[in-house]
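tool_log.txt
---
The assistant was asked to compare two proteins side by side. It first ran the structure predictor on the initial sequence, then on the second. Raw inputs and outputs are pasted verbatim so the downstream comparison step can read them without reformatting.
(1)
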Amino acid sequence: MKKQILVGLCLLALQLTFAQESISLFNGKNLDGWVNHGEEKWFVEDGELICESGPKAEYGYLSTKNFYKDFELTLEFKQEADGNSGVFIRSTFEGTKVTGWQVEVAPPGKHTGGIYESYGRNWLIKPDPEKDKALKMGEWNTMKIRVEGPEVTSWLNGVEMVHLKDEKIGKGEGAIALQIHDGGGIRVKWRNIQLVSLDVQ
């Protein structure tokens, strides 16, 4: 009986170790593993993933080929020339129409770290205004997003921005995606996009 318990504990430990292994979603060389939605510009330069507005200045998205349900995502972004962007979770696409939820990346005063539902309920939660000072416009910022069941938490440079529990998000399935906002004149850099799965295999 003791042996069975020991074997069971070892298997559980292996599952937890597997579930918490970090995955690099961006290889620093090319866009392998990603899908471009739209006609905006996504390219790699000096080991960084860069998005720029194209001639049409429309919405654009770069999504992972794989779907991710429960995870902790950490990435760095640097906003240049406006910097209105975002990170989508559990999202699917029809052209440039997205079904899912965005953790906002935006210029100062525009609710970076808040959660927005595109083509749906719009803003679900915005950070307290005083937390906006955590954003370093024109410098590298670190964002962490934890998605588990119906709960989403975002952090910006170590500051918890929002925590939301939402049953609709809990039922969502889809990819992780980066956004470039419409309107033109936008440029954002990304690097060190790391994911830890919270799904127990």
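(2)
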Amino acid sequence: MDYPHIEEDQRDRIAQIISFARTYSPDRGHDEQVARNALQLFDQLSPLHGLPGNDRFLLHAACILHDIGWSRGDRAHNKSGARMVRRDRTLPLTKEERQQIALLVRYHRKELPSSSQRRFAALKAADKKRVAILSSILRIADGLDRSHQSRVEAITVTIRRDRVIIRCHANSEGYSEREYAMARADLFTMVFSRTVEIDWKIAG
């Protein structure tokens, strides 16, 4: 599957991460779609978040790995996946990258980053901000493929003073996608002080 632009020096690492995830993730197509959604959001939200390219890599890796915890059972798969990332030493990640990607995997559903959580609290202020921003994007990107049907073909983002409009160009209707993405936009609104609107447009 073609992703939005990947830096040349990250291609090999992404390929290794995809190979690792293939062993554990129940739906590779979903992981790829979430990654495509997230990278489009990251790129178009750049004026808002101001994060550098390596943070894009962290987001991409987390998208690929976000559902590996299903291999440990269906209960709290986000926490299982986070533990798997933290404990693995074959993934081509630095210690800091591994810690932050594990947190992104943990926060892709339900609970939000909080200083009451030991591993998040231990991060430096800049890393906390990074994890919160990237988690907020991953949560929406995951919601936009709720049905695992890869309905979103392209995303266009409009940034306004009080809201962000996410226009999804899709191949079919996506009621559950819109509903779930809106439910998962809670962290985004907290981080950026902007509400999220999702405009669904069926191609053709």
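---
observation on (2): The longest helix spans residues 125-143. The chain has a mean pLDDT of 93.
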